[in-house]
TrEMBL record:
Residues 58-180 form the Thioredoxin domain. It comes from Camellia sinensis. Keywords: Disulfide bond. Gene3D superfamilies: Glutaredoxin. Belongs to the thioredoxin family. Plant F-type subfamily. Pfam families: Thioredoxin (PF00085). This is Thioredoxin domain-containing protein.
Amino acid sequence: MALQLQVPLTRSASFSSSCGSWTSNHSIVCLSGGGDQWSSARVSRSVLEKRREKIGGSRSLRVRSSLDVAVSVGQVTEVCKDTFWPLVKAAGDKTVVLDMYTQWCGPCKVIAPKFKELSEKYLDVVFLKLDCNKDNKPLAKELGIKVVPTFKILKDGKVVKEVTGAKFDDLVGAIEGARSS
């Protein structure tokens, strides 16, 4: 997972979550990793401007608030209980598909590569995945998970469809239905 937060250089900002905590007076703070393995990098404005020249256009979604949160499209982004709702909000009116899984689940492991393929196919959809471990249990409970894998399809921050089990065709149908509504 990669989580990008932009903060103004004019003030220092502190961030804290189960995914990590840090203080920055730099323009970009990036977290990457998942589970218990997180690393962060702080990028100054001059480095950012040089990177922007090299990279050109960005395939990111952004929402304006006190923080800017970005999600890359065309890939699956790992979320935790602290990053899920801000990323759903950042998606705006785009369809969001959440894969709720566990590390020990066989069917979850089987459908994971197919879920990644869907993220590369549907570039207008945001694909997220949540490991329903004990750290993320409050969010899993809030979303009403009963079995894994469970796929929640959200529009405008609300769950509009759910697919339980590793039912690929049902998942594709649910995504198609949400995209067309």
